[in-house]
């Protein structure tokens, strides 16, 4: 795996030969070999004359040689994460860059700076950086390194460098122009299959996301009603004598089950909901990646088409065509490898998430079962005592 | 040993047109009214509800819903069993003929003229407010029955809402099944796990129907005691009425004795218009006074006898009513305890089903 250490960040104008890239993408994710550990925590509010914003503390611990130090602590705001993501997309147009949490959440009337919103965002940002760290290529990206290590002013000045807005716009215009031609007609079968897959996957994951939210909502409504249910039995026990204990017992069982339901809900919101949401975002990202691949192919195709009639100028442009062909091959290989990696990760994530959901529910039912069984045992003992005393004359 | 042909004719009513079912329910009502009036010292078992009440969302308030009709049939059967196992009520001839005689029973009941014995609601209400010295135990019992009614109503209402929400939780999980199935179509390795997990989610969603149907029977057990609270109150009201009657009779007697004394001694102790007019316009003749005295003395004697018998009646009522109330209390404690135990058993069964389904689902997920 020595090729790994040689790879540095690269931009679209500097394609590396396909073979070295292929070697690189054979790298399997092995958590034990991790040498970069990142945490995102400690959200802090900053108030200036112009705006209010939140920064998060990003702590990095590493044993890598290319890092000057083994530990870094910086503060970043959401804008900085957005910058990082766009730099990564620029550098690797056909790699699957992990999703960022959204800027705003429309649906749940959540205030921009509510504690819940900040915590959800913090967790998602943490995930984002760690997914990049786990990615065989992205983990060595230079902008990523700067993001993790640079002090605030260093980052600002670095951000200002790099291709200007106009040139970036120029790239976009060219991309749009070539996308008009599509690159779809010459699209290799693999990528058509990917496209079909993503369309269906996107549909299904969105539905799942809705279902999961609905389940959470129903469980919360159930919890709210249960809160009232137990105390009524206690109230009743106040006007009874003989059955007061039984009533209090039932009240206590219901209250315990109520708490168990609260735990179940928490499990859902900590685990299933964020993962499904992440994959909803992923499906959009994947569709974007496929489009960009098509665009790159489109550039080549349009050039080839343009030259189809100009036999005389073929030699002049053969070098350009050659470069574009290389570019397409790189892009395709990058995407194929990253796609396989993404699918494996997705399978793994889904397996562990849904298993966790099942375990959550099991724990819930087991807790409730134990509660009611112990109540039953206490009642049956009482009945047996009564029966015995009836037998004795 | 009593046979339950009446129950069979009740279930016939389910096949017969709508109004015949109602008539049969009305015959039960007639029977109960008769028993309540004829045995006012007994806590008469209540009838099941006529219309579906405390429903949760899934069950419509439809009185023709087969589940509701069945549960009401069971409730009516239960009513008859209660009456049949009551030491006093089971001996009643009208009850016996309700069970054995199909034709002409209604006329037979009406011929007893029991409606005439019924106390007017207004009279009873009046007595409740004005009685001065009711037996303390009945006052306490009345408070208890009010509390019982209030707390069971509340419980049933919340239970219905909890059931509604629980239904929602289970049924939403059913949506997993279809999505998992459709998703599994595009997956190679994950497909099987998803598909089979989806199946278990369908099983989970479907399981709630039986669970909640069983819980309805538990709710019915509580409802019976909700309605029993009214029966308890009826006995208390009867006591108050009798006590008030007694107090009025005693008051009346006292005032008559006073009048007697005044006439006999010629002194007017209390101001009265008659006394004034007689002062102004001259006193009565001795013969007139004599006649009046005689009438009063007769009335007093009657009154004293009546008071004696009313007193006796009242004491007998209190004694026999309280005996039945003690019997009722034991029955109530036993039944409610059993009901709570059966509720626990239902919860345990629900938990075990949940554990089974999610264990299966977990296995499927872990194989994805």
From TrEMBL, chain A:
Domain PX: 34-155
GO cellular component: early endosome; phagophore assembly site
GO biological process, one term: autophagy of mitochondrion
The UniProt record lists the keyword Ribonucleoprotein: no
SMART domains (UniProt xref): PX
Sample GO molecular function, one term: phosphatidylinositol binding
Alphabetized Pfam families for the sequence: PX (PF00787)
Classification via InterPro entries: AH/BAR_dom_sf, BAR_SNX7, PX_dom, PX_dom_sf, PX_SNX7
Coiled-coil residue spans: 307-334
Alphabetized UniProt keyword annotations: Coiled coil, Protein transport, Transport
Recorded family membership: Belongs to the sorting nexin family.
Entry protein name: Sorting nexin-7
The species this protein was found in: Pelecanus crispus
Automatic annotation (TrEMBL), chain B:
Keyword Transport: yes
PROSITE patterns in the cross-refs: PX
The UniProt record lists the keyword Protein transport: yes
Pfam families registered for this protein in UniProt: PX (PF00787)
Gene3D superfamilies: Arfaptin homology (AH) domain/BAR domain, Phox-like domain
One function term, GO molecular function aspect: phosphatidylinositol-3-phosphate binding
Span of domain PX: 1-105
PANTHER family in the cross-refs: SORTING NEXIN-4
Family: Belongs to the sorting nexin family.
Protein name stated in the entry: Sorting nexin-4
């Amino acid at each position: 795996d020595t090729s790994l250490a040689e790879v540095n960040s690269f931009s679209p104008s500097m394609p590396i030969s396909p073979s070295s890239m292929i070697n690189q993408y054979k790298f399997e994710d092995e958590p034990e070999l991790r040498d970069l550990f990142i945490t995102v925590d400690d959200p802090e509010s900053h108030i200036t004359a112009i705006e209010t914003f939140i920064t998060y503390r990003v702590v990095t611990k590493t044993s890598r040689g290319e890092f000057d130090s083994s530990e870094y602590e910086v503060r970043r705001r959401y804008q900085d994460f957005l910058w990082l993501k766009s730099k990564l997309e620029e550098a690797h147009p056909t790699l699957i860059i992990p999703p960022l949490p959204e800027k705003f959440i429309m649906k749940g009337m959540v205030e921009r700076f509510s504690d819940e919103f900040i915590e959800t965002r913090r967790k998602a940002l943490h995930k984002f950086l760690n997914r990049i760290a786990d990615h065989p290529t992205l983990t060595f990206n230079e902008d990523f390194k700067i993001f993790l290590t640079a002090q605030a002013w260093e980052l600002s000045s670095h951000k200002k460098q790099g291709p200007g807005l106009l040139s970036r716009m120029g790239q976009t215009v060219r991309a749009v122009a070539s996308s008009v031609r599509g690159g779809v007609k010459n699209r290799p079968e693999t990528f058509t299959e990917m496209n079909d897959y993503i369309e269906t996957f996107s549909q299904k994951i969105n539905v799942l996301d809705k279902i999961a939210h609905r389940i959470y909502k129903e469980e919360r409504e159930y919890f709210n009603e249960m809160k009232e249910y137990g105390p009524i039995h206690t109230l009743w026990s106040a006007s009874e004598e003989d059955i007061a204990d039984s009533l209090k017992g039932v009240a206590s069982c219901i209250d315990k089950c109520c708490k168990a339901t609260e735990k179940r809900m928490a499990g859902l919101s900590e685990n299933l909901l964020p993962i499904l949401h992440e994959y909803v975002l992923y499906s959009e990202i994947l569709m974007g990646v496929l489009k960009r691949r098509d665009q790159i192919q489109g550039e080549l195709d349009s050039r080839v088409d343009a030259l189809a009639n100009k036999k005389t100028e073929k030699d002049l442009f053969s070098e350009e065509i050659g470069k574009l062909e290389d570019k397409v091959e790189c892009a395709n290989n990058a995407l194929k490898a990253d796609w396989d990696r993404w699918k494996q990760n997705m399978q793994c994530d889904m397996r562990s998430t849904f298993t966790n959901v099942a375990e959550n529910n099991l724990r819930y039912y087991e807790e409730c079962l134990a509660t009611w069984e112990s109540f039953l045992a206490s009642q049956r003992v009482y009945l047996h005592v009564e029966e015995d005393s009836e037998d004795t004359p | 040993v009593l046979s339950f042909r009446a129950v069979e004719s009740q279930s016939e009513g389910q096949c017969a047109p709508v109004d015949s079912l109602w008539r049969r329910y009305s015959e039960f009502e007639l029977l109960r009214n008769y028993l309540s009036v004829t045995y006012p010292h007994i806590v008469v078992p209540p009838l099941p509800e006529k219309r579906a009440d405390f429903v949760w969302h899934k069950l419509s308030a439809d009185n023709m819903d087969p589940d509701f009709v069945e549960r009401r049939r069971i409730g009516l059967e239960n009513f008859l069993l209660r009456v049949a196992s009551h030491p006093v009520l089971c001996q009643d001839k009208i009850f016996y003929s309700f069970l054995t005689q199909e034709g002409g029973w209604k006329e037979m009941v009406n011929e007893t003229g029991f409606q005439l014995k019924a106390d007017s609601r207004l009279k009873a209400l009046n007595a409740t407010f004005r009685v001065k010295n009711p037996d303390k135990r009945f006052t306490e019992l009345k408070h208890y029955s009010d509390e019982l009614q209030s707390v069971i109503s509340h419980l049933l209402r919340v239970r219905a809402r909890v059931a509604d929400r629980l239904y929602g939780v289970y049924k939403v999980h059913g949506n997993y099944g279809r999505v998992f199935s459709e998703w599994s179509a595009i997956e190679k390795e994950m497909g099987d796990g998803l598909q089979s997990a989806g199946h278990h989610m369908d099983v989970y969603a479907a399981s709630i129907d039986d669970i909640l149907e069983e819980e309805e029977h538990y709710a019915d057990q509580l409802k019976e005691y909700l309605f029993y609270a009214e029966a308890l109150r009826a006995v208390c009201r009867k006591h108050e009425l009798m006590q008030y009657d007694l107090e009025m009779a005693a008051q009346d007697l006292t005032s008559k004795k006073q009048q007697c004394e005044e006439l006999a001694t010629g002194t007017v102790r209390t101001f009265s218009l008659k006394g004034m007019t007689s002062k102004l316009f001259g006193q009565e003749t001795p013969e007139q006074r004599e006649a009046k005295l005689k009438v009063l003395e007769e009335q007093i004697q009657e009154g004293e006898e009546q008071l004696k018998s009313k007193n006796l009646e009242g004491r007998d009522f209190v004694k026999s009513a309280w005996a039945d109330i003690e019997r009722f209390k034991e029955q109530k404690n036993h039944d409610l305890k059993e009901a709570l135990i059966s509720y626990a058993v239902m919860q345990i069964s629900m938990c075990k089903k949940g554990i089974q389904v999610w264990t299966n689902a977990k296995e499927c997920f872990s194989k994805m």
